[in-house]
Amino acid sequence: MEHFLNLNYIQAINNLEVMEERQDDVDTIRFHEAENAFDILTERAFVKKFRLTKGLVNILIDELRPYLEPPSRKSAISIERKVLTALRFFASGSYQQDIGEN
Questions:
Q1: What's the burial of 83, exposed, middle or buried (CB within 10 Å: 0-12/13-18/19+)?
Q2: Domain of life here (predicted)?
């Protein structure tokens, strides 16, 4: 009987750990949705990630803005995010690396 109670206790602890991991995943997703690469990355980290300085990316965004459709709803992707996503792909050559890192 005691062995059965110990198994239930272990199962309960395991369930709590899984729930905590899922909550961490949700918090990480919320953070990534709200982050702004210009604000959170240092210049050096920004260049390492996108292969251009923050100033050059801002110039590029301004140059591309007339050719990109502005967001039409709240959940739409901003022009800045579109340009940064494209630059990240060009810099790494793959989406798989970013998915693995994030």
A1: buried
A2: Eukaryota
The most distant pair of C-alpha atoms in the chain lies apart, rounded to whole Å, by: 73
Tokens representing 89 are 């792909």
Per-residue pLDDT of the chain (102 residues; tens, 9 = 90+): 555 555 566 666 666 565 666 654 544 444 454 568 898 888 998 998 899 999 999 999 999 999 998 888 887 888 999 999 899 889 888 766 665 565
Token output for 62: 């301004």
In the block, tokens 């991991």 appear at: 21
Q: Is the pTM of the predicted complex or chain greater than 0.85? A: no
